[in-house]
Amino acid sequence: MSTTPAPELHSIGLVVSDLAATLTFYRRLGIEFPEGSEDQPHVEAVLPGGLRLLLDPESTVRSFHPSWRPPAGGSGRVGLAFRCTGPEHVDAVYEDLVGAGYHGELKPWDAFWGQRYAVVHDPDGNGVDLFAPLA
Questions:
Q1: Which of 30, 31, 52, 117 is the most exposed place for a label (fewest CB within 10 A)?
Q2: Residue 37 has pLDDT above 90, yes or no
Q3: What angle do CA 106, 14, 105 make, to 5 degrees?
């Protein structure tokens, strides 16, 4: 058994094709990024609990890793999940995002595991799950 402590999850990083569009999407979900972030080569937001969301435009990633290419086939790069305050909040957030033109992958439904659940895609096709416990 190792006496070395386990690493602690500190950040979630996304490589994005359009930083401005990605910032608009995640701001609609309540994540606060500094003003003027749209023109930066790297952006970070501290989330509740201290976890950080890092956004790097593809051009930035290619500048330090020239052989990097986005995943083929249009699939997303990562999935994120946002806990909502209740089932009606899942519906409202889903409708807000779809109404703003984002792709609704899975309309809100009552999942067999006891949650109201929905999935939308961010501008790069990453799955963003919206969920809340059912009453």
A1: 30
A2: yes
A3: 10
Asked if 107 and 89 count as a contact pair (C-beta separation under 8 A), the reply is no
Among candidate residues 78, 80, 75, 83, the one with its CA nearest the CA of residue 115: 83
The phi and psi torsions of 94 (rounded to 5 degrees) equal -60, -50
The parent domain of residue 20 ranges over 11-65+77-133
Residue with tokens 């937001």: 45
Q: What is the pLDDT of residues 45-86, one digit of tens each?
A: 999 999 999 998 988 888 877 877 777 765 566 778 898 999
| CATH code of the domain in which 44 resides | 3.10.180.10
Residue 3 included in any domain: no
Q: Could you report how far apart the first and last alpha carbons of the chain are, in Å?
A: 42
Q: Decide: helix, strand or coil at residue 132.
A: strand
Q: Which residues of 110-128 are buried (b: 16+ CB within 10 A; e: fewer)?
A: eeeeebbbbbbbbbbbbbb
